[in-house]
Protein backbone atom coordinates (compact mmCIF):
# COMPACT_ATOMS: atom_id res chain seq x y z
CA UNK A 1 0.00 0.00 0.00
CA UNK A 2 2.67 2.47 1.09
CA UNK A 3 4.78 1.51 -1.86
CA UNK A 4 1.87 2.14 -4.14
CA UNK A 5 1.29 5.61 -2.65
CA UNK A 6 4.98 6.36 -3.16
CA UNK A 7 4.78 5.41 -6.82
CA UNK A 8 1.61 7.41 -7.27
CA UNK A 9 3.22 10.53 -5.86
CA UNK A 10 6.36 10.19 -7.92
CA UNK A 11 4.38 9.62 -11.12
CA UNK A 12 2.18 12.61 -10.33
CA UNK A 13 5.22 14.84 -9.85
CA UNK A 14 6.78 13.63 -13.09
CA UNK A 15 3.54 14.05 -14.98
CA UNK A 16 2.98 17.61 -13.82
CA UNK A 17 6.57 18.46 -14.71
CA UNK A 18 6.11 17.01 -18.20
CA UNK A 19 2.82 18.84 -18.55
CA UNK A 20 4.41 22.13 -17.59
CA UNK A 21 7.32 21.74 -20.01
CA UNK A 22 4.90 20.88 -22.77
CA UNK A 23 2.78 23.87 -21.91
CA UNK A 24 5.80 26.21 -21.98
CA UNK A 25 6.88 24.79 -25.32
CA UNK A 26 3.49 25.40 -26.88
CA UNK A 27 3.30 28.93 -25.61
CA UNK A 28 6.77 29.90 -26.97
CA UNK A 29 6.30 32.45 -29.71
CA UNK A 30 7.29 31.27 -33.14
CA UNK A 31 9.32 33.44 -35.51
CA UNK A 32 9.77 37.13 -34.72
CA UNK A 33 9.24 38.31 -31.21
CA UNK A 34 6.61 40.99 -30.91
CA UNK A 35 6.47 41.87 -27.27
CA UNK A 36 2.89 42.95 -27.53
CA UNK A 37 0.86 43.57 -24.39
CA UNK A 38 -1.02 40.34 -25.10
CA UNK A 39 2.20 38.39 -24.97
CA UNK A 40 3.19 40.08 -21.76
CA UNK A 41 -0.09 39.08 -20.21
CA UNK A 42 0.48 35.52 -21.26
CA UNK A 43 3.98 35.51 -19.80
CA UNK A 44 2.65 36.83 -16.49
CA UNK A 45 0.05 34.11 -16.47
CA UNK A 46 2.71 31.51 -17.14
CA UNK A 47 4.86 32.83 -14.36
CA UNK A 48 1.95 32.53 -11.97
CA UNK A 49 1.25 29.01 -13.10
CA UNK A 50 4.89 28.10 -12.75
CA UNK A 51 4.90 29.38 -9.20
CA UNK A 52 1.78 27.41 -8.45
CA UNK A 53 3.35 24.25 -9.85
CA UNK A 54 6.52 24.80 -7.84
CA UNK A 55 4.49 25.19 -4.68
CA UNK A 56 2.49 22.04 -5.28
CA UNK A 57 5.67 20.18 -6.13
CA UNK A 58 7.15 21.35 -2.86
CA UNK A 59 4.07 20.10 -1.03
CA UNK A 60 4.43 16.77 -2.74
CA UNK A 61 8.06 16.62 -1.72
CA UNK A 62 7.17 17.28 1.92
CA UNK A 63 4.50 14.59 1.84
CA UNK A 64 6.93 12.18 0.27
CA UNK A 65 9.56 12.84 2.94
CA UNK A 66 7.10 12.28 5.78
CA UNK A 67 5.92 9.05 4.20
CA UNK A 68 9.50 7.89 3.92
CA UNK A 69 10.11 8.70 7.57
CA UNK A 70 6.98 6.81 8.63
CA UNK A 71 8.06 3.87 6.53
CA UNK A 72 11.46 3.71 8.21
CA UNK A 73 9.90 3.86 11.67
CA UNK A 74 7.52 1.01 10.88
CA UNK A 75 10.27 -1.02 9.34
CA UNK A 76 12.10 -0.81 12.63
CA UNK A 77 9.00 -2.08 14.43
CA UNK A 78 8.47 -5.16 12.36
CA UNK A 79 11.44 -5.61 10.16
CA UNK A 80 10.94 -9.12 8.92
CA UNK A 81 7.29 -8.57 8.14
CA UNK A 82 8.07 -5.41 6.20
CA UNK A 83 10.72 -7.13 4.14
CA UNK A 84 8.26 -9.80 3.06
CA UNK A 85 5.70 -7.19 2.12
CA UNK A 86 8.20 -4.94 0.35
CA UNK A 87 9.66 -7.77 -1.66
CA UNK A 88 6.24 -8.87 -2.79
CA UNK A 89 3.59 -6.20 -2.76
CA UNK A 90 1.05 -8.51 -4.42
CA UNK A 91 1.13 -10.80 -1.40
CA UNK A 92 -0.79 -8.21 0.67
CA UNK A 93 -4.21 -9.77 0.28
CA UNK A 94 -7.40 -7.74 0.37
CA UNK A 95 -10.01 -8.84 2.92
CA UNK A 96 -12.32 -11.45 1.43
CA UNK A 97 -16.02 -10.82 0.92
CA UNK A 98 -17.96 -13.52 2.74
CA UNK A 99 -21.70 -13.65 2.16
CA UNK A 100 -24.01 -14.60 5.03
CA UNK A 101 -27.07 -16.56 3.92
CA UNK A 102 -29.88 -16.74 6.47
CA UNK A 103 -32.64 -19.30 5.91
CA UNK A 104 -36.11 -18.21 6.85
CA UNK A 105 -39.64 -19.53 6.57
CA UNK A 106 -42.42 -18.54 8.93
CA UNK A 107 -40.77 -17.61 12.22
CA UNK A 108 -40.94 -13.94 13.13
CA UNK A 109 -38.39 -14.73 15.84
CA UNK A 110 -35.84 -14.40 13.04
CA UNK A 111 -35.56 -10.91 14.51
CA UNK A 112 -33.55 -12.31 17.37
CA UNK A 113 -31.05 -13.85 14.95
CA UNK A 114 -30.85 -10.81 12.66
CA UNK A 115 -30.36 -8.43 15.58
CA UNK A 116 -27.34 -10.43 16.69
CA UNK A 117 -25.87 -10.74 13.20
CA UNK A 118 -26.08 -6.97 12.80
CA UNK A 119 -24.77 -6.32 16.28
CA UNK A 120 -21.62 -8.39 15.81
CA UNK A 121 -21.03 -7.86 12.09
CA UNK A 122 -17.75 -5.93 11.77
CA UNK A 123 -18.45 -4.69 8.24
CA UNK A 124 -21.48 -4.53 5.99
CA UNK A 125 -19.25 -4.59 2.91
CA UNK A 126 -17.23 -7.60 3.98
CA UNK A 127 -20.17 -9.65 5.26
CA UNK A 128 -23.22 -8.89 3.10
CA UNK A 129 -26.28 -10.57 4.61
CA UNK A 130 -28.85 -12.22 2.37
CA UNK A 131 -32.03 -13.55 3.94
CA UNK A 132 -33.72 -16.19 1.83
CA UNK A 133 -37.36 -16.72 2.67
CA UNK A 134 -39.46 -19.71 1.77
CA UNK A 135 -43.12 -20.23 2.70
CA UNK A 136 -44.27 -16.70 1.81
CA UNK A 137 -45.27 -15.93 5.41
CA UNK A 138 -46.16 -12.22 5.32
CA UNK A 139 -45.51 -11.30 8.98
CA UNK A 140 -42.00 -12.79 8.67
CA UNK A 141 -41.40 -10.92 5.40
CA UNK A 142 -42.35 -7.69 7.18
CA UNK A 143 -39.85 -8.33 9.96
CA UNK A 144 -37.07 -8.95 7.45
CA UNK A 145 -37.99 -5.89 5.39
CA UNK A 146 -37.85 -3.71 8.50
CA UNK A 147 -34.04 -3.97 8.36
CA UNK A 148 -33.96 -1.92 5.17
CA UNK A 149 -30.65 -1.87 3.36
CA UNK A 150 -28.78 -3.62 6.17
CA UNK A 151 -29.54 -6.86 4.36
CA UNK A 152 -30.99 -8.24 1.14
CA UNK A 153 -34.21 -10.27 1.08
CA UNK A 154 -34.69 -12.91 -1.58
CA UNK A 155 -37.76 -15.16 -1.86
CA UNK A 156 -37.93 -18.72 -3.02
CA UNK A 157 -40.35 -18.48 -5.97
CA UNK A 158 -41.47 -22.10 -6.24
CA UNK A 159 -44.27 -22.49 -3.70
CA UNK A 160 -45.84 -25.44 -5.47
CA UNK A 161 -46.84 -28.48 -3.47
CA UNK A 162 -44.48 -31.44 -3.43
CA UNK A 163 -46.48 -34.59 -4.19
CA UNK A 164 -45.52 -37.41 -1.84
CA UNK A 165 -47.14 -40.75 -1.20
CA UNK A 166 -47.58 -42.97 1.83
CA UNK A 167 -45.01 -42.73 4.59
CA UNK A 168 -43.05 -40.04 2.73
CA UNK A 169 -45.90 -37.57 3.31
CA UNK A 170 -44.84 -36.78 6.81
CA UNK A 171 -41.40 -35.74 5.56
CA UNK A 172 -42.71 -32.96 3.34
CA UNK A 173 -40.98 -30.37 5.47
CA UNK A 174 -37.61 -31.90 4.72
CA UNK A 175 -38.34 -31.84 0.98
CA UNK A 176 -39.21 -28.17 1.18
CA UNK A 177 -36.05 -27.39 3.10
CA UNK A 178 -33.87 -29.17 0.52
CA UNK A 179 -35.63 -27.32 -2.31
CA UNK A 180 -35.11 -24.02 -0.53
CA UNK A 181 -31.42 -24.68 0.21
CA UNK A 182 -30.70 -25.71 -3.36
CA UNK A 183 -32.39 -22.65 -4.79
CA UNK A 184 -30.85 -20.17 -2.36
CA UNK A 185 -27.31 -21.53 -2.66
CA UNK A 186 -27.56 -21.36 -6.43
CA UNK A 187 -28.94 -17.86 -6.25
CA UNK A 188 -26.21 -16.52 -3.99
CA UNK A 189 -23.24 -18.31 -5.54
CA UNK A 190 -24.31 -17.68 -9.15
CA UNK A 191 -26.69 -14.72 -9.00
CA UNK A 192 -24.70 -12.70 -6.44
CA UNK A 193 -21.45 -14.39 -7.38
CA UNK A 194 -20.16 -14.79 -3.83
CA UNK A 195 -17.05 -16.89 -3.52
CA UNK A 196 -17.61 -18.03 0.06
CA UNK A 197 -20.69 -18.14 2.23
CA UNK A 198 -21.70 -18.68 5.82
CA UNK A 199 -25.00 -20.54 6.21
CA UNK A 200 -27.18 -19.58 9.15
CA UNK A 201 -30.70 -20.57 10.15
CA UNK A 202 -33.29 -18.21 11.54
CA UNK A 203 -33.30 -19.77 15.02
CA UNK A 204 -29.62 -19.36 15.91
CA UNK A 205 -28.00 -17.27 18.60
CA UNK A 206 -24.42 -16.38 17.73
CA UNK A 207 -21.34 -15.57 19.79
CA UNK A 208 -19.54 -12.18 19.79
CA UNK A 209 -16.62 -13.64 17.80
CA UNK A 210 -18.80 -15.42 15.23
CA UNK A 211 -17.50 -13.34 12.29
CA UNK A 212 -13.95 -13.25 13.63
CA UNK A 213 -13.95 -17.05 13.80
CA UNK A 214 -15.04 -17.53 10.20
CA UNK A 215 -12.78 -14.79 8.88
CA UNK A 216 -9.73 -16.30 10.57
CA UNK A 217 -10.48 -19.77 9.22
CA UNK A 218 -11.23 -18.59 5.70
CA UNK A 219 -7.60 -18.88 4.47
CA UNK A 220 -7.33 -22.37 5.93
CA UNK A 221 -10.55 -23.50 4.27
CA UNK A 222 -9.26 -22.13 0.96
CA UNK A 223 -5.79 -23.63 1.19
CA UNK A 224 -6.32 -27.03 2.83
CA UNK A 225 -8.13 -29.18 0.28
CA UNK A 226 -8.82 -31.86 2.89
CA UNK A 227 -11.26 -29.40 4.50
CA UNK A 228 -14.71 -28.71 3.11
CA UNK A 229 -16.36 -26.70 5.83
CA UNK A 230 -15.88 -24.51 8.84
CA UNK A 231 -18.60 -25.05 11.43
CA UNK A 232 -19.56 -23.04 14.47
CA UNK A 233 -21.04 -26.04 16.24
CA UNK A 234 -19.89 -28.70 18.72
CA UNK A 235 -22.42 -31.56 18.82
CA UNK A 236 -21.14 -32.59 22.25
CA UNK A 237 -20.68 -29.04 23.49
CA UNK A 238 -22.95 -29.19 26.50
CA UNK A 239 -22.33 -27.23 29.66
CA UNK A 240 -19.87 -29.07 31.86
CA UNK A 241 -18.62 -31.17 28.94
CA UNK A 242 -16.45 -28.58 27.24
CA UNK A 243 -13.01 -27.29 28.20
CA UNK A 244 -13.05 -23.79 29.69
CA UNK A 245 -10.99 -22.45 26.82
CA UNK A 246 -12.76 -20.75 23.91
CA UNK A 247 -9.57 -20.81 21.81
CA UNK A 248 -9.57 -24.57 21.30
CA UNK A 249 -10.47 -25.72 17.78
CA UNK A 250 -10.61 -29.22 16.29
CA UNK A 251 -10.81 -31.03 13.00
CA UNK A 252 -13.88 -33.21 12.56
CA UNK A 253 -14.90 -35.82 10.00
CA UNK A 254 -18.50 -35.28 11.05
CA UNK A 255 -20.33 -32.50 9.19
CA UNK A 256 -21.93 -30.48 12.01
CA UNK A 257 -23.89 -27.76 10.13
CA UNK A 258 -25.62 -25.21 12.38
CA UNK A 259 -23.68 -22.17 11.25
CA UNK A 260 -21.14 -23.24 8.66
CA UNK A 261 -19.02 -21.86 5.85
CA UNK A 262 -18.49 -23.30 2.39
CA UNK A 263 -16.80 -22.18 -0.81
CA UNK A 264 -18.24 -21.87 -4.28
CA UNK A 265 -16.00 -24.72 -5.41
CA UNK A 266 -17.87 -27.07 -3.11
CA UNK A 267 -21.20 -25.80 -4.37
CA UNK A 268 -20.15 -26.40 -7.99
CA UNK A 269 -19.45 -29.97 -6.95
CA UNK A 270 -22.85 -30.44 -5.31
CA UNK A 271 -25.23 -28.30 -7.38
CA UNK A 272 -26.06 -30.86 -10.03
CA UNK A 273 -26.81 -33.71 -7.67
CA UNK A 274 -28.49 -31.79 -4.86
CA UNK A 275 -31.01 -34.13 -3.19
CA UNK A 276 -34.78 -33.75 -2.91
CA UNK A 277 -34.80 -34.21 0.87
CA UNK A 278 -32.58 -34.74 3.94
CA UNK A 279 -29.70 -32.75 2.46
CA UNK A 280 -27.66 -32.85 5.67
CA UNK A 281 -27.61 -36.65 5.86
CA UNK A 282 -26.93 -36.79 2.12
CA UNK A 283 -23.98 -34.43 2.36
CA UNK A 284 -22.43 -36.70 5.02
CA UNK A 285 -22.38 -39.70 2.70
CA UNK A 286 -18.94 -40.82 1.47
CA UNK A 287 -19.80 -39.90 -2.15
CA UNK A 288 -20.17 -36.26 -1.08
CA UNK A 289 -17.73 -35.99 1.80
CA UNK A 290 -14.82 -37.66 0.03
CA UNK A 291 -12.95 -38.02 3.34
CA UNK A 292 -12.86 -34.27 3.88
CA UNK A 293 -13.15 -32.70 7.32
CA UNK A 294 -14.56 -29.58 8.94
CA UNK A 295 -13.12 -27.34 11.62
CA UNK A 296 -15.29 -27.05 14.72
CA UNK A 297 -14.83 -25.12 17.95
CA UNK A 298 -14.61 -26.64 21.41
CA UNK A 299 -17.20 -24.12 22.61
CA UNK A 300 -19.99 -23.54 20.07
CA UNK A 301 -20.34 -20.18 18.33
CA UNK A 302 -24.03 -20.83 17.65
CA UNK A 303 -26.94 -22.21 19.62
CA UNK A 304 -30.52 -22.84 18.58
CA UNK A 305 -33.16 -20.98 20.51
CA UNK A 306 -36.20 -22.21 18.58
CA UNK A 307 -38.20 -25.19 19.65
CA UNK A 308 -40.77 -25.07 16.88
CA UNK A 309 -39.48 -26.42 13.62
CA UNK A 310 -39.28 -29.41 11.40
CA UNK A 311 -37.10 -31.50 13.68
CA UNK A 312 -38.91 -32.38 16.85
CA UNK A 313 -39.02 -30.29 19.98
CA UNK A 314 -38.01 -33.22 22.12
CA UNK A 315 -34.46 -33.11 20.79
CA UNK A 316 -34.33 -29.46 21.81
CA UNK A 317 -35.55 -30.15 25.32
CA UNK A 318 -33.27 -33.13 25.85
CA UNK A 319 -30.13 -31.92 24.14
CA UNK A 320 -29.83 -28.67 22.20
CA UNK A 321 -30.98 -26.59 25.13
CA UNK A 322 -27.84 -27.51 27.08
CA UNK A 323 -25.28 -26.56 24.44
CA UNK A 324 -22.91 -23.94 25.73
CA UNK A 325 -22.69 -20.77 23.61
CA UNK A 326 -19.34 -18.99 23.77
CA UNK A 327 -19.53 -15.48 25.20
CA UNK A 328 -15.91 -14.33 24.98
CA UNK A 329 -14.31 -12.67 21.98
CA UNK A 330 -11.26 -14.57 20.78
CA UNK A 331 -9.14 -12.54 18.31
CA UNK A 332 -8.66 -15.54 16.03
CA UNK A 333 -7.41 -13.48 13.07
CA UNK A 334 -4.35 -12.55 15.10
CA UNK A 335 -3.51 -16.15 15.89
CA UNK A 336 -1.52 -18.68 13.94
CA UNK A 337 -4.07 -21.37 13.09
CA UNK A 338 -1.87 -23.33 10.70
CA UNK A 339 -1.73 -26.20 13.22
CA UNK A 340 -5.23 -27.07 11.97
CA UNK A 341 -3.98 -28.01 8.53
CA UNK A 342 -3.99 -31.73 8.00
CA UNK A 343 -0.25 -32.07 7.50
CA UNK A 344 0.44 -30.42 10.84
CA UNK A 345 -2.55 -31.72 12.76
CA UNK A 346 -2.74 -35.44 12.11
CA UNK A 347 0.68 -36.48 13.33
CA UNK A 348 0.25 -34.55 16.58
CA UNK A 349 -3.30 -35.80 17.01
CA UNK A 350 -2.41 -39.47 16.66
CA UNK A 351 0.60 -39.05 18.95
CA UNK A 352 -1.54 -37.34 21.56
CA UNK A 353 -4.46 -39.79 21.50
CA UNK A 354 -2.48 -43.01 21.38
CA UNK A 355 0.14 -41.71 23.77
CA UNK A 356 -2.62 -41.30 26.37
CA UNK A 357 -3.10 -44.18 28.85
CA UNK A 358 -6.09 -46.42 28.21
CA UNK A 359 -8.72 -46.91 30.93
CA UNK A 360 -12.14 -48.55 31.10
CA UNK A 361 -15.49 -46.80 31.18
CA UNK A 362 -16.07 -48.20 34.70
CA UNK A 363 -12.88 -46.62 36.00
CA UNK A 364 -14.12 -43.28 34.75
CA UNK A 365 -17.70 -43.49 35.93
CA UNK A 366 -16.73 -44.81 39.36
CA UNK A 367 -14.06 -42.12 39.67
CA UNK A 368 -11.46 -44.66 40.72
CA UNK A 369 -8.54 -43.01 38.89
CA UNK A 370 -5.99 -41.34 41.15
CA UNK A 371 -5.18 -38.51 38.70
CA UNK A 372 -7.04 -36.07 36.44
CA UNK A 373 -4.85 -36.42 33.35
CA UNK A 374 -6.32 -37.17 29.92
CA UNK A 375 -7.27 -40.78 29.27
CA UNK A 376 -8.32 -42.95 26.37
CA UNK A 377 -11.25 -45.34 26.22
CA UNK A 378 -11.12 -47.95 23.48
CA UNK A 379 -14.08 -49.14 21.43
CA UNK A 380 -13.92 -52.06 19.03
CA UNK A 381 -17.44 -52.17 17.56
CA UNK A 382 -20.53 -50.11 17.01
CA UNK A 383 -22.03 -51.54 20.19
CA UNK A 384 -19.05 -50.88 22.44
CA UNK A 385 -18.97 -47.31 21.12
CA UNK A 386 -22.65 -46.76 21.88
CA UNK A 387 -22.38 -48.26 25.34
CA UNK A 388 -19.42 -46.08 26.24
CA UNK A 389 -21.04 -42.98 24.72
CA UNK A 390 -24.24 -43.50 26.74
CA UNK A 391 -22.33 -44.07 29.96
CA UNK A 392 -20.22 -40.95 29.44
CA UNK A 393 -23.07 -38.73 28.28
CA UNK A 394 -22.09 -37.93 24.69
CA UNK A 395 -24.05 -38.36 21.45
CA UNK A 396 -24.11 -42.01 20.43
CA UNK A 397 -25.36 -41.88 16.87
CA UNK A 398 -23.49 -42.26 13.55
CA UNK A 399 -24.09 -40.70 10.15
CA UNK A 400 -22.56 -42.69 7.32
CA UNK A 401 -20.53 -44.48 9.98
CA UNK A 402 -19.03 -41.31 11.49
CA UNK A 403 -19.76 -40.57 15.17
CA UNK A 404 -20.60 -36.95 16.02
CA UNK A 405 -17.46 -34.76 16.30
CA UNK A 406 -15.31 -37.81 15.41
CA UNK A 407 -11.91 -37.38 13.83
CA UNK A 408 -10.08 -40.47 12.61
CA UNK A 409 -12.66 -42.39 14.62
CA UNK A 410 -11.82 -40.52 17.83
CA UNK A 411 -14.35 -38.52 19.82
CA UNK A 412 -12.73 -36.01 22.20
CA UNK A 413 -14.67 -34.48 25.06
CA UNK A 414 -14.54 -33.57 28.73
CA UNK A 415 -15.87 -35.97 31.33
CA UNK A 416 -15.82 -34.73 34.93
CA UNK A 417 -13.29 -32.07 33.85
CA UNK A 418 -10.96 -34.60 32.33
CA UNK A 419 -10.10 -34.98 28.65
CA UNK A 420 -11.34 -38.31 27.35
CA UNK A 421 -10.59 -39.77 23.92
CA UNK A 422 -13.12 -42.39 22.94
CA UNK A 423 -11.01 -44.07 20.31
CA UNK A 424 -10.77 -47.14 18.09
CA UNK A 425 -7.61 -49.22 18.26
CA UNK A 426 -4.46 -47.78 16.71
CA UNK A 427 -4.88 -50.09 13.70
CA UNK A 428 -8.06 -48.25 12.67
CA UNK A 429 -8.66 -48.49 8.91
CA UNK A 430 -11.49 -46.03 8.31
CA UNK A 431 -15.21 -45.63 8.98
CA UNK A 432 -17.70 -48.40 8.43
CA UNK A 433 -20.65 -46.68 6.75
CA UNK A 434 -23.02 -49.45 7.85
CA UNK A 435 -22.72 -48.25 11.48
CA UNK A 436 -25.77 -46.14 12.27
C1 LIG B 1 4.26 -13.21 -4.06
O1 LIG B 1 2.88 -13.37 -3.81
C2 LIG B 1 2.25 -14.32 -4.63
C3 LIG B 1 0.76 -14.28 -4.36
O2 LIG B 1 0.47 -14.35 -2.99
C4 LIG B 1 2.88 -15.68 -4.37
O3 LIG B 1 2.27 -16.67 -5.20
C5 LIG B 1 4.37 -15.61 -4.66
O4 LIG B 1 4.97 -16.86 -4.33
C6 LIG B 1 5.02 -14.50 -3.84
N1 LIG B 1 6.43 -14.35 -4.21
C7 LIG B 1 7.40 -14.16 -3.32
C8 LIG B 1 8.75 -13.94 -3.87
O5 LIG B 1 7.20 -14.17 -2.10
C1 LIG C 1 -28.10 -24.68 -9.89
O1 LIG C 1 -27.87 -24.07 -11.16
C2 LIG C 1 -27.22 -24.93 -12.08
C3 LIG C 1 -26.87 -24.11 -13.28
O2 LIG C 1 -27.90 -23.29 -13.68
C4 LIG C 1 -28.11 -26.11 -12.39
O3 LIG C 1 -27.49 -26.98 -13.29
C5 LIG C 1 -28.39 -26.84 -11.08
O4 LIG C 1 -29.30 -27.90 -11.29
C6 LIG C 1 -28.95 -25.91 -10.03
N1 LIG C 1 -29.03 -26.64 -8.79
C7 LIG C 1 -30.01 -26.51 -7.92
C8 LIG C 1 -29.95 -27.34 -6.72
O5 LIG C 1 -30.93 -25.74 -8.11
From TrEMBL:
<dbReference type="Pfam" id="PF03071">
    <property type="entry name" value="GNT-I"/>
</dbReference>
<comment type="function">
    <text>Initiates complex N-linked carbohydrate formation. Essential for the conversion of high-mannose to hybrid and complex N-glycans.</text>
</comment>
<keyword id="KW-0464">Manganese</keyword>
<keyword id="KW-0472">Membrane</keyword>
<keyword id="KW-0328">Glycosyltransferase</keyword>
<dbReference type="InterPro" id="IPR004139">
    <property type="entry name" value="Glyco_trans_13"/>
</dbReference>
<protein>
    <recommendedName>
        <fullName>Alpha-1,3-mannosyl-glycoprotein 2-beta-N-acetylglucosaminyltransferase</fullName>
        <ecNumber>2.4.1.101</ecNumber>
    </recommendedName>
</protein>
<keyword id="KW-0333">Golgi apparatus</keyword>
<feature type="coiled-coil region">
    <location>
        <begin position="36"/>
        <end position="77"/>
    </location>
</feature>
<feature type="transmembrane region" description="Helical">
    <location>
        <begin position="6"/>
        <end position="26"/>
    </location>
</feature>
<comment type="pathway">
    <text>Protein modification; protein glycosylation.</text>
</comment>
<keyword id="KW-1133">Transmembrane helix</keyword>
<dbReference type="InterPro" id="IPR052261">
    <property type="entry name" value="Glycosyltransferase_13"/>
</dbReference>
<keyword id="KW-0735">Signal-anchor</keyword>
<dbReference type="InterPro" id="IPR029044">
    <property type="entry name" value="Nucleotide-diphossugar_trans"/>
</dbReference>
<comment type="similarity">
    <text>Belongs to the glycosyltransferase 13 family.</text>
</comment>
<keyword id="KW-0175">Coiled coil</keyword>
<keyword id="KW-0812">Transmembrane</keyword>
<keyword id="KW-0808">Transferase</keyword>
<keyword id="KW-0479">Metal-binding</keyword>
Amino acid sequence: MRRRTFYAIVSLALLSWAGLTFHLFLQRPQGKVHRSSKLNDQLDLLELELQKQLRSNEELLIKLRSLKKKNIAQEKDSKSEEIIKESNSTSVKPSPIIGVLVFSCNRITIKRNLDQLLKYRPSKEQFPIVVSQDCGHEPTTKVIQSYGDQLTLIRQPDQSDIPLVGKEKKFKGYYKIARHYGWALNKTFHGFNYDTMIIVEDDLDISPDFFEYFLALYPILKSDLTLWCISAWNDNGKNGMVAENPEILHRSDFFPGLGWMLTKDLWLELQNKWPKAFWDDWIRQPAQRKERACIRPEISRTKTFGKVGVSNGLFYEKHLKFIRLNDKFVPFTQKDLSYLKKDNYDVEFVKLVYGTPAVTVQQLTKGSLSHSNPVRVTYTSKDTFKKAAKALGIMDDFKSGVPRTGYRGVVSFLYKRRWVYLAPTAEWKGYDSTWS
